Amino acid sequence: MNENILEPEKCLEIIKKKMCLDSVNGFSYTYEFKPSKESSGLLGQYFNLKVRLVKRNSSEVKKLNFFIKMLPKKGVQYNFIKACGFFEIELGLYEKIFPKILTSKETNLVPECFLCQKDHVLVFEDMSLQGYRVLDKFQYLQLDQFLIIVKHLARFHARSLIFEEKNRETVMQLCHANEVLINKNDGNLKSNLNKRFKNVTSMVDLLTDIDFGKKEECKAKISRISSHHYEKSASSTKFRNVLCHRDLWNSNILFKNNENGNDDHCCFVDFQLARYCPPAYDLLYFLYCTTSRNFRKEHSTEILFSKYYDTLTESLKEAKIDLSASFSWNDFIESMAEIKLSCMVHGFSIMSMCFLGPDASVQIRDESVSASQIVCEEFRENEKCRLLSVYHPTASVNAYSNMQPCFCAAVCVAVVFLRGKATAHCCAHSRKLANGKLNAALDEETGEWRKLHNDELHALYGAPNILRVMKARKLRWAGHVARMGNDRSVAQIMQGKPNSKRPLGRPRIRWRDNLKKDLVELGYDYNEWMDDAHDRDAWRSRVDEAMNFRVPNADK
User: Fold this and answer.
1) Eight-class DSSP state of 442
2) How far is C-alpha 482 from the chain's CA centre?
3) Contact 185/273 with Cβ under 8 angstroms?
4) What values do phi and psi take at 123, rounded to 5?
5) Does the first or last residue of the chain, that is N or C, have fewer Cβ atoms within 10 Å of its Cβ?
6) C-alpha gyration radius of the chain
7) With contact defined as beta carbons under 8 Å apart, do 411 and 200 qualify?
8) Lowest mean per-residue pLDDT among 290-294, 326-330, 349-353, 437-441
9) Sequential DSSP letters for 203-217
10) Edge-to-edge strands of the sheet including 113-117?
11) For 111-140, what is each residue's pLDDT tens digit?
12) pLDDT tens for residues 516-555?
């Protein structure tokens, strides 16, 4: 299958670049193209290039393997990719941008590219020969995998910040100067995203347990959130921006095992949707596309992403740059809060497309049937897609038994979780889904249906208790202040003692007194807390413990 893939001279160019040779006169070679296991995706066609290189007058044989990504054949899919500029963006990043912002130490975050041919093809290193593998898109990430990806993503984002600090030029300015048009052609992409959001609202219509009015309310909430989505993914004037992947889910992440068989490294592929925007977008989209609701309930977002921020800080510190001066932890948390809802709805809408079977994917590419109709029909017929749709990204994963046919109730669960408010019908069915029981919303004493109370809703939808959040954040800030050093004004204020006399009456409770109370509740010695705070990992575990601590009279 050698026709219409690559010209012989291009294959020769790839071989010379891989072998670091000026000429291959001393070798004879043959090559062949084979369709990849995923020979045709939504945004391209994939092939493997296999080369057999023989040194003349010798029996030495060298085998080379490459991965080829091509524009799809002419048609609806081709026109869409060309209109949005996806292929040109990825090609430009590999050819012009990555060589300038990624150091030799960080180049293993993306595959090595051996050929960038405009409007046609990209040729990469075959990462499978180095032990990398594609994650199963139907499997949730485990905590250790999640943290590995977060740390590597922090290193990738750090290169944008380091480039900007050293060159006094934004990465977006660099891209546009090199005709890599990220954050451009947004009209076509926005139109496509609106279609994906429509898929979600279409699934709401399949709900059978709530009336028409409630369905319309759910759809209105989804539409209201999605209407502002595109602005949320644009470059920010308030927070620091970086070059974001913007499509991080299982199929776009390659994992590599170490000698012990454990995952210890990853790299990112498929940058055609890359944008220049706050890093929170990559993180939250990744969170909602790859983890279960139980996972997010057990591990608070701030605790999970503190690993990201720590790695980001360390990477910039190696370059002698103080991250807190331009992008503090509080800025980071605020940026995530602003786009959290948008990323959740976006993640669900995209996953509804990614779980389609091969036949449905062909229909999507050809637009022979509307996308909403295809998605709904596929989820009726495909059990695996239905399971993932109900329990991904907002519902529990331990209720695969007693599967309800009304799979799109997950949309309703998502909306309730987003807004923290539910009707009695919606809550009852959501409770059934979350627990896998038909009588979950029944009163055990009276045997009658009853309205769920706020504390039950908090437990059902994973909303953290406000007192736990306050205690955890107080401890996290205290640790931050303790590590500042005595020359910082904040530390001086906290540790200093006023020389004037106190007024008459009972002394007022100070912030430090509340901190002491929280530490005592957790069973720690208050007198040694400042020394303990310098151990970041140990202190972070205390913050995590405070987040999961049962607050008296608050969880009953």
Assistant:
1) B
2) 32
3) no
4) -120, 125
5) C
6) 27
7) yes
8) 437-441
9) HHTT--SS-HHHHHH
10) 27-41, 44-55, 61-70, 121-125, 113-117
11) 999 999 887 899 999 998 888 988 888 788
12) 888 888 777 777 787 788 888 878 878 877 776 654 444 4
